[in-house]
Specification:
Layout: H1 3-12, H2 18-36, H3 41-44, E1 47-49, E2 56-61, E3 64-69, E4 81-85, H4 91-104, E5 108-110
Antiparallel strand pairs: 1-5, 2-3, 3-4
Length: 113
């Protein structure tokens, strides 16, 4: 459990453990999805967890990035979300990729238990 979860709950005016419960549910849903995959897709589907203050939610898929910025006082669902397609010169996509690399460098893989 991350110390940043409580800070974010307070900033967003949420009840204690609300973000923790949402995160656990999201991880379980992602693991259910992985469970239904066939090989070799199952082996390439990896989930990671990290303990850093969330600033961005980034999903990378092929040459696309889905980016959601977390405002300081707004709940995640009320923050803007962007679909970014990688271009030949693509500073916003590159920004997302660098943030992903930074977070992943300190993350640990979630394995099925």
């Amino acid at each position: 459990e991350s110390p940043f979860t409580e800070q974010r709950e307070k900033a967003e005016g949420l009840r204690p453990n609300r973000i923790k419960n949402i995160t656990v549910n999201n991880i379980e849903t992602a693991l259910d999805f992985k469970f239904r995959l066939e090989e070799p897709q199952k082996e390439s589907y990896k989930l990671y967890k990290y303990s850093k203050l969330p600033r961005l939610n980034v999903i990378l898929l092929d040459s696309y990035a889905i980016l959601q910025y977390y405002g300081n006082t707004e709940a995640g669902m009320r923050n803007p979300c962007f679909l970014i397609e990688k271009q030949e010169v693509s500073p916003l996509y590159d920004f997302c990729l660098e943030n992903y690399r930074y977070i992943k460098s300190n993350a640990e893989e979630i394995t099925e238990e």
